[in-house]
Amino acid sequence: MRAVCVIGLGLIGGSVLRAAAAVGRPAWGATIDEEDSAAAGRAGFEVLATEAALRRAADEDALIVLATPLTAMQGVLRQVAANAPHALLTDVVSVKDAVENEVRKQVPTARYAGGHPMAGLAESGFLAGSAELFSGAAWAVTIEERTPLQAWREAARLALDCGAHVVPTSAAAHDDAAARISHLPHMFAAVLAAVGADGGPLALSLAAGSFRDGTRVAGSPPELVQAMTEGNKPALLDALDDALGRLGAARGSLASTGGLKSTVDAGHQARISLEELDTDTRETSAVALGENALFRLRELGELGGRVTDVTEDEATIEVPVA
Amino acid sequence: MRAVCVIGLGLIGGSVLRAAAAVGRPAWGATIDEEDSAAAGRAGFEVLATEAALRRAADEDALIVLATPLTAMQGVLRQVAANAPHALLTDVVSVKDAVENEVRKQVPTARYAGGHPMAGLAESGFLAGSAELFSGAAWAVTIEERTPLQAWREAARLALDCGAHVVPTSAAAHDDAAARISHLPHMFAAVLAAVGADGGPLALSLAAGSFRDGTRVAGSPPELVQAMTEGNKPALLDALDDALGRLGAARGSLASTGGLKSTVDAGHQARISLEELDTDTRETSAVALGENALFRLRELGELGGRVTDVTEDEATIEVPVA
């Protein structure tokens, strides 16, 4: 089993380290955060200095997983270039196009495929994580013109070992999707919480499920939310414009005719689509991992397909039946 | 124990009927919905024709609870005027000013205090309800210039018997608060769901906690959401304008400086305020139910106070310590 070297041992990195070790893979980590480092050490994991961890990854041809914040990525990639320039490389950062570009620029010789597990943010730090954090979650693994098949397979294999299923996608399509289903929800939660609190203690004391659910992620660490949302600026601007358009239309309709039927119905239909995705009949097929296989997988990802197994020769993908 | 007559036996009315019976109060109901009527009958409850139910309430000086949709309120109040014009009367409709005005117009002799339990909407109908639906929930009971002390006490008593605590408030303040913490969340959930679904199957297949939580109430029956939100038009317009202002400011800031710190921080602080409300130290005091007692309770409600007991002579209220 291929070894795993995790750089950054917060909630996500720490959980990847645990999950990789739990399936029996050799695994070690590095972090500049002293609390996370101490916590991982106490939990029995091998924690090295970053350069030492990377050099060992180069020696053992381990998969390096970058789990630092986007804002630290430039510096970490310089260290990768210096210590493991030909490494198998992936990451778990919430935006993909920016990381993809930075990797191409700084470590063009790395065998890289970007990743993003869609899980967890309410707490942070190594101690908040667990080997089960990704169980049942979606995990995007990106496919670009230059993505090496081996890198994609290794990143996908890690995601599957962590208990997730893999959604094959381009970095750009991922970022557009993430803006809509992760970054905009964080903006909405923040705005909703603030408008509610503007109603004073009376409003908050009447708050029930709809407000509590709708504002839950506003409880996430603000610096993480800020980094995540600001890091996906172009796609988030598009999503915000769509949202402002729909919300403005609802406001206009309520003010003029008094009707909110089209807003409510569209939202209901969309939510039903989400729920149906969980229960839809899916057709399972095997994609041979030859030439153009990754683009075929990416097309199936656009249709809602999820990869549930990856071997040396083929990927198993479940696609909703239309 | 005062008898309870519930008109409308959907999720909320059916749950009130069950909870009232569960504490040993004589209770009966009426509904024009055949399914709810049959289900309540099968569950062992006495279901009468609406006029018969109201006449019996008049005979036994029961508390009448109107649990029909806002859109049906006018017709039901005409029946109350014809059959129980001096009744003790409350309601469980999600807007309060409109109901208050309609009651004053149609049944000016009724002893009325409006109510609104902050619970449940994801499903509808008698069968979706339970005696425990309101357990631990807030239940607004309104106080206006003309609210009779006895009517408020009886409505509050019912809420407490249902396991809720009582938030004393004016109808207008309730409607403003409800717009912010219930109706706007439903608008946000609808818009968020639609913007997410516009991202296609890929976006929905990447959706995790933030999107699922933020869109949950978009799964509610659309006709109920529409009636509830449209019924609170002036207050909801204010809340929508606040939200559009905050969201537009975030959009502007992201587009210009690229920064979302003030939006994220304000939302985080607001969410913390909500969570603190559950854990705040509270000071318990007793308010003697004499002259001006209701206005005193209403003031304490503005500060986040909740009534946890009501006797013939006094109300016990817990107010957060500043």
UniProtKB/TrEMBL annotation, chains A, B:
Coiled coil: none
Pfam families from the UniProt entry: PDH_C (PF20463), PDH_N (PF02153)
InterPro entries named in the record: 6-PGluconate_DH-like_C_sf, NAD(P)-bd_dom_sf, PDH_C, PDH_N, Preph/Arog_dehydrog, Prephen_DH
Superkingdom, natural source: Bacteria
Signal peptide: 1-21
The Prephenate/arogenate dehydrogenase domain, residue ranges: 2-285
Keyword tags: Oxidoreductase, Signal
PROSITE patterns: PDH_ADH
SUPFAM superfamilies: 6-phosphogluconate dehydrogenase C-terminal domain-like (SSF48179), NAD(P)-binding Rossmann-fold domains (SSF51735)
Family: Belongs to the prephenate/arogenate dehydrogenase family.
Entry protein name: Prephenate dehydrogenase
Organism per entry: Saccharopolyspora halophila
